[in-house]
Amino acid sequence: QSRSMAAGGGADGALPELGRYIVARPIYNEVNFQEENERRLVVPKTLRERVQKTCSCSKKKAIQVTKTLLPILEWLPKYRVKEWLLSDVISGISTGLVATLQGLAYALLVGVPIGYGLYSAFFPILPYFFLGTSRHISVGPFPVVSLMVGSVVLSMAPDENFRVLSSNLTGLNKTLIDTDARDAQRVLISSTVSFLVGIIQLLFGVFQIGFIVRYLADPLVGGFTTAAAFQVLVSQLKIVLNVPTANYNGVLSIIYTLIEIFQNIAKTNIADLIAGLLTIFICMVVKEINDRFKHKIPVPIPIEVIVTIVATGISYGADLEKKYNAGIVKHIPSGFLPPINPAVGMFGDIIASSFSIAIVAYAIAVSVGKVYATKYDYAIDGNQEFIAFGISNIFSGAFSCFAATTALSRTAVQESTGGKTQVAGIISAAIVLIAIVALGKLLEPLQKSVLAAVVIANLKGMFMQIGDVPRLWRQSKADAMIWVFTCIASIILGLDLGLLAGLVFALLTVVLRVVEPEGVKILRFSSPIFYANIDGLRSSLKSTVGFDAMRVYNKRLKALRKIQKLIKKGKLKATKNGIISDFGTANEAFEPDEDPEDPEELDIPTKEVEIQVDWNSELPVKVNVPKVPFHSLIFDFGAVSFLDVVAVRVMKTILKEFERIDVKVYIASHLDHIIKTLEHCAFFDDKIKTEIFFLTVHDAVLHIQNQIMHRDIQDPIFEKVGTQTQFCFYSFTSNSLKPDLYEAPEFHLQKERFSLALLPSASDILIPLDLRSLCT
């Protein structure tokens, strides 16, 4: 039964309230849902039929698969030469000039010779042209990813590993750094990281794991990229100042770097500082002009290119290196290097960092690509993007490049200058090619501080994300906390550990944001349950609910046995005013529990009767009975795709343990085949029935609330408590159970059932529901 209603207009002619959509239906558990809905019989295909379907080939299917793997075959035949070519050429030239300068600048972040930045701006574009699904992103280096690669490079090849002794004419030994060996090792490490990043991305694409990016929420990415911008700023600050510092990496590296920069601030090179500050100021002013007047300026002013040309000319004409000891590029190799094999032996040392880089690089590229795909009404295939970037990084890693993704500023140039397709990207690669082959030598007098300043000027967009925090705080405090926590963690711990910490924190906030009704605990399982993770699941369950159900059961038995023994010995007496100790005798009931942590072995007789005790109130014996703050436990199976035999057996044990301490267990949002698996594994019996399975978590919660409401209405005790000052005892023997009411102070009543084993000769015993005033 389901219906939708929109509130209609009243007699006064008011407009209908169209902003509400109300759905009403019964509460469904597995039993009544199956009764009201006919199951459609689906005959599963045999393995042979599935293999035949997968391996069958037709002309149409072959073309479709080929176009999926090579998207260029889909868009290139539809290319509008007359309408798009001129725009793509202009865009490609503009983007190529920017890519050339950014490639040189971002090489500083990686810690490799500057010329390798040109290779990294050229090679990744070529495979993406054939394999990528975004028409607008500019593939190449990005500061965040470059810095992450640089952290791996600097940690594995620090300067200290390449110190050599050199003797001069005076016979004195001097320690120098073998820069040639150091640079060669760093290039090998960065290219190996790129190669491994490509392998990881390719595997993710082949196995259709593009969904993993969903776990990188916008606040998480915003906080992370802002922290990365701070890391980049500090790493480039020492180049702008041209002060000597060690290369720090890992936890608190940004703090150590800042301390050493300020310790050596007196050694600042004035020529480099002036050049860097002027470059930052000019670039930021012109970029602001480009942004404000983008509708009036046909092509954005390529300020980085202009500043670089001017700075190179000034450095060359004024001979800043010799006169002012300015730090310059010095050497840019012309032409290409032959391809090299990756250092496979390093894979074990860099696998964790490469995994982080692969995810971050992909997330940045896809998020930027989706912005323009939405703007121009086309789709991006997430898994194909993994394949495209994977092959791009494998290919470029063989040519000594560092890992590639896309740069926000470069992509904005490509789109704003009229770029329509990746033809603009391939033309930008041609411009970088010209710089590699012919123009590299002309940039050798360029000051490194100018390149560092270009990097800093391009961080403006990432720093502006700080303005998102107040808006996030108004909209969702949890999202704002994710942003701030990820940013601070990434600054203090480093980018790798910071990203991991932010991801864990974000997932925790998702768990904490689940609104649980009073007395109900909801637990969500986010993976299949099988023999490998079932022990971890039990441990997580105990830590989440705050107690061990079996230990609670044993402790309750222990407490009840002590009460029984003390009453039989006359140490406690049951009266209408409660259970009191004999006057003048020691109250042995209040002796502490001798072994609070170890469940004692109980000699439980066979005959059991039912009593009712408020286990969350103070007991007349000091047995350490853990509190159980809820009466219902819901397992959300929405993400559980299967259970194996071991998991079924353990889940059945868990249900029985909670039932014994009077906590009702429900399972919700399960897949249909889960019930079949449970049936085949003998999960159901006289106590565990299909009625505990509900269509959704909300169905289960509503069922629990209805049960509580029905119990409150039907129970006569609840009608009297609150209006009268009465006290309830249960008088019981081994054969009977009947309630008696006595006058007593008003108390808060919370009932829980428990089975107490009694000796066959037990006489009538009075046990009050609330035992807080049992001793005078």
UniProtKB/TrEMBL annotation:
Keyword Membrane among UniProt keywords: yes
Main location (coarse class): membrane
Membrane topology recorded in Swiss-Prot or TrEMBL: Multi-pass membrane protein
Membrane-crossing residue ranges in chain numbering: 114-131, 138-157, 193-213, 220-241, 261-285, 297-318, 343-365, 386-408, 423-443, 450-467, 482-515
Subcellular location field: Membrane
Assigned GO CC terms: membrane
One Pfam short name: STAS
Domain STAS: 510-704
Highest taxon in the source lineage: Eukaryota
Keywords, comma-separated and alphabetical: Membrane, Transmembrane, Transmembrane helix
GO biological-process terms attached to the record: transmembrane transport
CDD domains, A to Z: STAS_SulP_like_sulfate_transporter
UniProt keyword Transmembrane helix, yes or no: yes
Name of the protein in its database record: Solute carrier family 26 member 4
Lineage, broadest ranks: Eukaryota, Metazoa, Chordata, Craniata, Vertebrata
